[in-house]
Amino acid sequence: MTNRIAVVDYGMGNLRSVAQALRHVAGEAEVVLASTPDLIETADRVVFPGQGAMRDCMAELDVRHLRQAVVDAAASKPFLGICIGLQMLFDHSEEGDAAGLGILRGQVKRFAADLKGADGLRLKVPHMGWNQVVQTKPHPLWNGIADQAFFYFVHSYHVVPDDAGIVVGQADYGHPFTAAVARDNVFAIQCHPEKSARDGLQLLRNFVGWNPVLA
Amino acid sequence: MLAKRIIPCLDVTAGRVVKGTNFVGLRDAGDPIEIARRYDAQGADEITFLDITASSDQRDIILEVVEACAAQVFIPLTVGGGVRQVADVRRLLHAGADKVSINTAAVDRPELVREASDKVGSQCIVVAIDAKQVAPGRWEVFTHGGRKATGLDVIAWACKMAEYGAGEILLTSMDRDGTCEGFDLALTRAVSDAVPVPVIASGGVGNLGHLADGVSEGHASAVLAASIFHFGQHTVQEAKAFMKERGIPVRL
């Protein structure tokens, strides 16, 4: 059985890091950078990373004619969104008033500038560094990862899903926010598993072996 | 809760990690990849490579170091030193760096920071500031390893750089660097409280108490140190255990 993992390459961000971390845990699986629709269509599973402004990411996706292949993959095969790759699955982002892919219902909002931490000091934006992820629901991708494990985050915007039922992980930055969502064959996470040391690699390893029941 | 970060810094030249004071008396500290792996295993939150190579024809060696490191160490990697243009930023990111630190080139042409952050995102752009005290409560930006005054006020400069798109400020006290007397806490606090982005405190760490002070007194989001880790004085684990005891949130 083939296990080819396509990392969607639309010219934005840390694809190389994502691909390298996947290769590190992939075993027999093959990891390819997919900059054309056919590489996404023929893959067994798809990783959708991203960095930078969401409007630019959406524009690059369209310039490369990858939008439909990404939407199809999210409807049909194991699919992992990372960072902006999580945010783009939603309807709309405040960042540049940008429309997302609309695969999941909800909004992407900026952290307020006046949030305060437990020590009374202003919380910096971007939210940058290692924060704990509370596993609000069990999921196969959490296997082998302790609840409240630390993951590396770097972002100024966070998703607010309409349906709280899709939230599987939360973190806290001035207030609890959605760190991970899951629905059917889709799992998407705000932090960077490829930069989150052992626990991040475990999540990627879980994804490589994940076989969700497809409708 | 967001953890305060501990970042070992590796000064690299000709493919080796070295450590000295103000670029004199450099001691060889070993192979960069081996050292980065060791710090990763000890629980370092990030690794910073500073390319201190003087001649430009040797610059590409750092790309090989970054590539090799990024294939084996899965924590954020910042690289600085000799970054002059957006193309340099791109090359380092492509080699596997997560963030690129810009220092002198930002002073020469502040627009570079705006252009770079527009192209690759603020999260990838660190502006490094070398600060020297010039009067009580006043610090000036220096370049060229602290040898060249710029006339710029550090706090105003840090705010400007955040506005131009720096995602983070790496703040080094030239007065303290290499002294082992601890961070310049007044400087660290003044800048941390003034800018909306995270500040990494650097320069002067001689013991674990200094690291904790940088966070609790200096309000830094992260602390950077070299010597205390390189020569076996302390491990990153010990540093984190110490900070935890002081009530500072850390990733253990």
TrEMBL record, chain A:
Signal peptide (from-to): none
Keyword Cytoplasm belongs to the record: yes
Enzyme Commission numbers on file: 4.3.2.10, 3.5.1.2
Keywords: Amino-acid biosynthesis, Cytoplasm, Glutamine amidotransferase, Histidine biosynthesis, Hydrolase, Lyase
Alphabetical list of Gene3D superfamilies matching this protein: 3.40.50.880
Reaction(s) catalysed by this chain's protein: L-glutamine + H2O = L-glutamate + NH4(+); 5-[(5-phospho-1-deoxy-D-ribulos-1-ylimino)methylamino]-1-(5-phospho-beta-D-ribosyl)imidazole-4-carboxamide + L-glutamine = D-erythro-1-(imidazol-4-yl)glycerol 3-phosphate + 5-amino-1-(5-phospho-beta-D-ribosyl)imidazole-4-carboxamide + L-glutamate + H(+)
Subcellular location: Cytoplasm
Source organism superkingdom: Bacteria
Active site, per annotation: 83, 192, 194
Alphabetical list of PROSITE patterns matching this protein: GATASE_TYPE_1
Pathway recorded for this protein: Amino-acid biosynthesis; L-histidine biosynthesis; L-histidine from 5-phospho-alpha-D-ribose 1-diphosphate: step 5/9
Main location (coarse class): cytoplasm
GO cellular component, one term: cytoplasm
Subunit architecture: Heterodimer of HisH and HisF.
Function summary: IGPS catalyzes the conversion of PRFAR and glutamine to IGP, AICAR and glutamate. The HisH subunit catalyzes the hydrolysis of glutamine to glutamate and ammonia as part of the synthesis of IGP and AICAR. The resulting ammonia molecule is channeled to the active site of HisF.
Name listed for the protein in its UniProt record: Imidazole glycerol phosphate synthase subunit HisH
UniProt organism field: Fluviibacter phosphoraccumulans
Organism taxonomic ancestry: Bacteria, Pseudomonadati, Pseudomonadota, Betaproteobacteria, Rhodocyclales
UniProtKB/TrEMBL annotation, chain B:
Protein name (record): Imidazole glycerol phosphate synthase subunit HisF
Active site (UniProt): 11, 130
Function: IGPS catalyzes the conversion of PRFAR and glutamine to IGP, AICAR and glutamate. The HisF subunit catalyzes the cyclization activity that produces IGP and AICAR from PRFAR using the ammonia provided by the HisH subunit.
UniProt entry tagged with the keyword Cytoplasm: yes
Catalytic activity: 5-[(5-phospho-1-deoxy-D-ribulos-1-ylimino)methylamino]-1-(5-phospho-beta-D-ribosyl)imidazole-4-carboxamide + L-glutamine = D-erythro-1-(imidazol-4-yl)glycerol 3-phosphate + 5-amino-1-(5-phospho-beta-D-ribosyl)imidazole-4-carboxamide + L-glutamate + H(+)
Annotated localization: Cytoplasm
GO CC terms of this entry: cytoplasm
Coiled-coil region list: none
Enzyme Commission code: 4.3.2.10
UniProt-listed Pfam families: His_biosynth
This protein's pathway: Amino-acid biosynthesis; L-histidine biosynthesis; L-histidine from 5-phospho-alpha-D-ribose 1-diphosphate: step 5/9
Species for this entry: Fluviibacter phosphoraccumulans
Homology family: Belongs to the HisA/HisF family.
One MF annotation (Gene Ontology) recorded for this entry: lyase activity
Broad class of where this protein is predominantly found: cytoplasm
Matching InterPro entries: Aldolase_TIM (IPR013785), His_biosynth (IPR006062), HisF (IPR004651), IGPS_HisA/HisF (IPR050064), RibuloseP-bd_barrel (IPR011060)
A biological process term (GO) from this entry: L-histidine biosynthetic process
Keywords: Amino-acid biosynthesis, Cytoplasm, Histidine biosynthesis, Lyase
Gene this chain is encoded by: hisF
Subunit structure: Heterodimer of HisH and HisF.
